[in-house]
Amino acid sequence: MTKILIGALTCHAYPERRRRCLETWVADALKANMDVVFLLGGADDWTRFGSA
Predict the structure, then answer these.
(1) What is the largest CA-CA distance in the chain?
(2) Nearest alpha carbon to residue 22 among 37, 4, 42, 39
(3) I need a surface site. Which of 1, 9, 11, 21 has the fewest CB within 10 A?
(4) 3-state SS string over the chain?
């Protein structure tokens, strides 16, 4: 059986946004047997990634 993994890009500066996600769509995804991860980064990380 195929399992779905959802990766949500976020930043350390937004814990409230992650909390709201956990209370809404993440809860639904977990009930549907999906895996969810938050990929944390920061502005410097995006700058390095974009210039590589």
Answers:
(1) 39
(2) 37
(3) 1
(4) CCCCEEEEEEECCCHHHHHHHHHCHHHHHHHCCCEEEEEEECHHHHHHHHHC
Tokens of 43: 């502005």
User: CA Rg, the chain, in Å?
Assistant: 13
Cβ count near 41 (within 10 Å): 13
pLDDT in tens, 15-48: 999 999 999 999 999 999 999 999 988 766 555 5
What span, in angstroms and rounded, lies between the C-alpha atoms of 11 and 18?
A: 9
Beta bridge partners, 5, equal 35
CA-based end-to-end distance of the chain: 36
